[in-house]
Design brief:
heterodimer; A: mainly beta; 11 strands; B: about 120 residues; seven-stranded mixed sheet; four-stranded antiparallel sheet; about 50% strand; globular
Chain lengths: ~110, ~120
């Protein structure tokens, strides 16, 4: 069956460290992969998109990798700050219209 | 600034009521979507529309219908609300890109409507 998995356990890290979140998928062949941030009680906000032929994408303190062999994406936040505390969702875009979202990983950054 | 606005942040409705959730976007986007979000399940697509008067079923369309009479407005209708439709509902829009209606870039989300059916 098709699945997209993000670590359901919250990730707790210290301010200044690098946070790494994982997104694994099975039985999909996504053309794109996206990462969104969601704060409590709000809608998700787009952060980064990476295409299947790209290995890595960066935007300021954010970095995303996409390994279609491992069927995995890693999302890194370097020099993390308490303001980075939120839920992070990965989303696959397949060859059709569908965007498939993971359930998200909650990140807590302690000062 | 891009804006997707949902008509209500919180709604409480009774079982059996007909419920309308409204969404308006001001970006002239072709695509609009309705998702519901439940703990541990992620966002699940209910319906989407890639043009006025066009609609496509998502993963969980049962018990819902949609209406898109104008490009900027996409409405979700719960024909007869039930308690298992208690959820956070999120509307999103995106630009049409690519050779077909099915390729698009990032989605812009509204703030969400938390619906409770009692």
């Amino acid at each position: 069956s098709q699945k997209i998995e993000q670590n359901s356990e919250a990730l707790n890290i210290q301010e200044g460290k690098t946070a790494t979140l994982t997104c694994n998928y099975t039985n999909y062949s996504p053309a794109y992969l996206q990462w969104y941030r969601q704060d409590p009680g709000r809608g998700p906000v787009f952060l980064l998109l990476i295409r299947e032929n790209e290995k890595e994408k960066r935007k300021e303190r954010l970095k995303v990798t996409f390994d279609t062999t491992l069927k995995q994406s890693l999302f890194h936040i370097t020099a993390s700050q308490p303001a980075d505390s939120a839920t992070y969702l990965c989303a696959l875009i397949t060859g059709g219209f569908k965007t498939i979202f993971g359930a998200g990983t909650r990140l807590f950054v302690k000062a | 600034d891009v804006k997707v606005t949902q008509s209500s942040r919180y709604l409480v409705k009774r079982t059996g009521e007909k419920v309308f959730l409204e969404c308006v976007q001001d970006m002239d986007h072709e695509n609009m979507f309705w998702y519901r979000q439940d703990p541990g399940l992620g966002l699940r697509l209910i319906y989407f529309s890639y043009d006025v008067k066009m609609k496509e079923k998502g993963d969980i369309p049962e018990g819902y219908s949609v209406s898109r009479e104008k490009k900027e407005r996409f409405s979700l209708i719960l024909e007869s609300a039930s308690t298992n439709q208690t959820s956070m509902y999120l509307c999103a829009s995106s630009i049409l890109q690519g050779a077909t209606a099915y390729y698009y870039t990032e989605a812009f989300f509204g703030q969400g409507t938390r619906l409770t059916v009692v």
